[in-house]
Write a structure and sequence with these properties.
- By secondary structure, this protein is mainly β.
- The protein has a single domain, classed as Sandwich (Immunoglobulin-like), CATH 2.60.40.
- 0% of the residues lie in helices and 40% in strands.
- It contains no helices and eleven strands.
- A seven-stranded antiparallel beta sheet has the order 7-10-11-3-4-5-9, with no helix packed on it. Strands 1-2 form a two-stranded antiparallel ribbon.
- The two termini are 25 Å apart.
Length: 173
């Protein structure tokens, strides 16, 4: 069975087909919370042939475009979530898909939140895995998903000029 999906990459929308993964595909869950500790949604991560698909159901966020990244530490202490560390970057690359030296493994497409504060969709993280290895989201420090206040410009190192961290959630099995 094939499911159609839309992914944003490098500022372009790419249409593609994703094969449904079997019941034995590794998965992970994330509950994202804002700086006041309130839930703003969930993410389900599923290992696939082309990386990890992140299915998001978000609400109560500011409308607009927001940077979205995998961060290198599985810790989300509010209100600023700085305990999540920098972007997940096992290859020590520069930030952004618009740079020759990039991107970080944790660089993901921007999310566009609707006027109602919601977002529902999927993004692909092609440079990470839920399996063992240097690109695993379950390394010794864990990892977290972070939503930023502003859009990621996909080139300014190390953060994409994406502003403060407005939501965070630890990736768990």
């Amino acid at each position: 069975m094939m499911k159609a999906a839309v992914f944003a990459a490098g500022g372009l929308l790419l249409m593609g087909a994703i094969a449904s993964e079997g019941a034995d595909a590794p998965t992970a869950k994330v509950e994202l919370r804002n700086g006041q500790g309130a839930s703003v949604g969930t993410a389900t991560l599923t290992e696939g042939h082309n990386g990890v698909t992140i299915a998001l159901q978000l609400s109560n966020l500011p409308p607009g475009t927001h940077g979205f990244h995998i961060h290198a530490v599985g810790k989300c202490d509010p209100p600023g979530f700085t305990t999540a560390g920098g972007h997940f970057n096992p290859e020590a690359r520069k930030h952004g898909g618009k740079t020759a030296e990039g991107p970080h493994a944790g660089d993901l497409p921007n999310l566009t939140v609707g006027p109602d504060g919601g977002f529902k969709g999927k993004v692909l993280a092609p440079r990470v895995t839920l399996n063992a290895g240097t690109h695993s989201l379950f390394g010794p420090n864990g990892t977290a998903l972070v939503i930023h206040a502003d859009a990621d410009d996909e080139m300014t190192d190390p953060t994409g000029n994406s502003g403060g961290r407005i939501a965070c959630g630890v990736v768990v099995r």
